[in-house]
Specification:
single chain, about 160 residues, mainly alpha, 9 helices, about 70% helix
C-alpha cells in the first residue's frame, strides 16, 4: 500500500483544508517521508476516537424521561447510553437513574421508600404506573363521572410483598 502515486493522488484530492489535518497529525514527521498507510491510520484514529467514558456518563446522567416519552422509550435510551459507560454495576446504575430521571415525582418518592430496590422491580413499577395512568385516561374518556372518581382515588404506591 506504500505507493507514492497513490499517496500523491490522495493528498491532492483531499483539498487544502483537509490536507492540513494529516500534516498536523503526523508532525514532526513530514508528509513526504511518511507512508500512505501511516497517514491513513493517523486520520482514522483521529476521526474514529471514542468519547471518553466520563463524557458518556455525563450523557447518561443528564438523561431524564421526556414530557411525552414513554417509560419503555426512556429505558431503551438509558440502556443504550449505559452500554458504553462501563459501569462497575450496570444494573445498579440503570436502576438508580431510571428512578432519578422519571417524570413522575410521585412514583419517584414511592420508589425512594423501597428498601433494596432492584432494577427489575423499578422497571415493573414504572411500567405499571404508566399503564395505570393510560387506563385512567381511557376510563375518563368513556365515563366522565367515573373518571372524576378515579382521578380522586390516585394510587400512592405500588408495594412489593
Amino acid at each position: 500500500m506504500d505507493n507514492p502515486k497513490m499517496k500523491a493522488v490522495f493528498l491532492s484530492m483531499c483539498g487544502s483544508t483537509t490536507f492540513m489535518m494529516p500534516k498536523a497529525l503526523i508532525a514532526p514527521d513530514k508528509l513526504e517521508s511518511t507512508a500512505l498507510i501511516a497517514i491513513l491510520t493517523a486520520l482514522k484514529e483521529h476521526f474514529m476516537q471514542q468519547p471518553l467514558k466520563i463524557a458518556w456518563k455525563h450523557a447518561f446522567y443528564k438523561q431524564d424521561q421526556g414530557h411525552t416519552e414513554s417509560v419503555a422509550a426512556y429505558l431503551a435510551e438509558l440502556q443504550c447510553l449505559a452500554q458504553v459507560c462501563k459501569f462497575t454495576d450496570l444494573e445498579e446504575a440503570l436502576c438508580d437513574w431510571l428512578v432519578c430521571g422519571l417524570r413522575s415525582e410521585r412514583l419517584q418518592r414511592c420508589l425512594f421508600e423501597k428498601k433494596d430496590l432492584t432494577f427489575k422491580a423499578a422497571v415493573e413499577a414504572a411500567i405499571t404506573d404508566e399503564s395505570a395512568k393510560d387506563t385512567k385516561v381511557v376510563h375518563q374518556a368513556r365515563s366522565p363521572q367515573q373518571g372524576m372518581a378515579a382521578h380522586n382515588e390516585e394510587v400512592l404506591c405500588i408495594h412489593e410483598d
